Amino acid sequence: MTQKTEDLDRLILEALDEDDRAVLAEIGEEPGYFSQALGLFGGKLGWVMWGMYFVNILGAVVAAWAGWQMFQTSDPAAVMRWGVLVLAALNIGIFMKGGMGVQLQHNRILRELKRVELQLARGQAKGSV
């Protein structure tokens, strides 16, 4: 994290009372990358992520096979055809990984919004008492 972000986090923690600090400690730190990545495969869109992952693996296998075929032939036209298939399969894989990355970021933003909602709800509950 940058220095400004760390200062902002420190200021937020200082502004919270003891109950809010306890709730934030209970929620814990942001999960690590691998926990977040594996979390993509659950929930409402888990089946979509599994489909994207399968297509990604299929694209990698097709790219490897087409690459092998491309280097085994000596006909220039066939080399071009296999090369186009390699590029298309790699493009599909990159597209799928990009979509999964967007979903990962989406989940991170939703997690932070839920933390803010929790703090707002607790603040409103304290204000009404």
Task: Describe the model.
Helix 4 runs antiparallel to helix 5. The chain folds into two domains: 30 residues; 95 residues. The protein is elongated. The mean pLDDT is 83. It has 129 residues and is an all-alpha fold.
What would a concise description of this structure say?
The protein is an all-alpha fold and 129 residues long.
Give a topology summary:
Blueprint: H1 3-15, H2 18-27, H3 33-39, H4 46-72, H5 76-128
Helix pairs in contact: 4-5
Report low-confidence residues grouped into runs of 5 or more.
none
State the share of residues found in helices, binned by percent. over 70%
Shape descriptor reads: elongated
The structural class is mainly alpha
Count of structural domains: 2
Number of strands: 0
Kindly report how far apart the N and C termini lie: 37 Å
How many helices? The count is 5
Q: Strand percentage, roughly?
A: under 5%
Average pLDDT score: 83
Rg is 24 Å
- H/E element string? HHHHH
Oligomerization category of the chains in this entry: single chain
Main β sheet profile: none
Which descriptors apply to this entry?
5 helices, elongated, 2 domains, 129 residues, mainly alpha
